[in-house]
Amino acid sequence: LDEAIGGYASTITVTLHNDGGTCTVQDNGRGIPVDKHPTQKKSALEVILTTLHAGGKFKEGAYNTSGGLHGVGASVVNALSAELEARVKRGGSEYRQQYKKGRPRNGVTQVGPARGTGTAITFRPDPTIFDHLSFEPDRILEQLEVKSFLHKGLKIIFRDKLNKVTHELHHEGGIPDYL
């Protein structure tokens, strides 16, 4: 949402996969930086996905407003996931990094050339932490609908592959459309 609020992304796609327990969240924003972090000895992508309060919203002038969890969202999702894969399109290339229980399985690798920009995060909740591992499509759809009203003009696509349903949520007028 921060990328959309900042005017860098126009579409967010949330996909629940056929297994019922894996989810991908993708945007067409700028893509999380993959180059070396200025003070840490690892990529900015890895820092953001493994360190609390490391998100871009804390960088001077990065975002005027934020719709997230103050820099903890990505790292917490990673820590609570059995597996997570980050794919980033940026600078004409696609990059990938995989994690297991919040720890990198490898470094950031360049997959190949790519058109466009954006980030896709695919994750599966950790069964040693959660008793209930399947997502609730109706609840997710309801929350995404709220986001689509609150952020006018943003297109949110929700794909539930298990139930073979796709919803496109787009309210150009925002809250007045809701009213």
What report would you give on this structure?
This protein has 179 residues and is α+β, with helices and mostly antiparallel strands. Strands 1, 2, 3, 4, 5, 6, 7, 8 and 9 form a nine-stranded mixed β-sheet that branches. A hairpin with a 2-residue loop joins strand 4 and strand 5.
Whole-number radius of gyration? Answer: 16 Å
User: What's the number of extended β-strand segments?
Assistant: 9
Q: Helices and strands: which structural class?
A: alpha+beta
Order of secondary-structure elements: HEEHHEEEEEHEEH
Principal-axis shape equals globular
Beta strand %: 25-35%
Largest sheet: 9 strands, mixed
What is the overall pLDDT average? 88
For the record, give the distance between the C-alpha atoms at the N and C termini, rounded to a whole number. Answer: 22 Å
Count of individual helical segments: 5
User: Low-confidence runs (pLDDT<50, min 5 residues)?
Assistant: 57-67
The share of residues in helices is 10-25%
Which key phrases capture this entry?
globular; nine-stranded mixed sheet; alpha+beta; 5 helices; single chain; 179 residues
Quick recap of the structure?
This protein has 179 residues and is of the alpha+beta class. It is built from 5 helices and 9 strands.
Topology, pairings included?
Blueprint: H1 2-5, E1 11-16, E2 23-27, H2 44-50, H3 73-79, E3 81-90, E4 93-100, E5 103-104, E6 109-113, E7 118-125, H4 137-150, E8 155-160, E9 165-170, H5 175-178
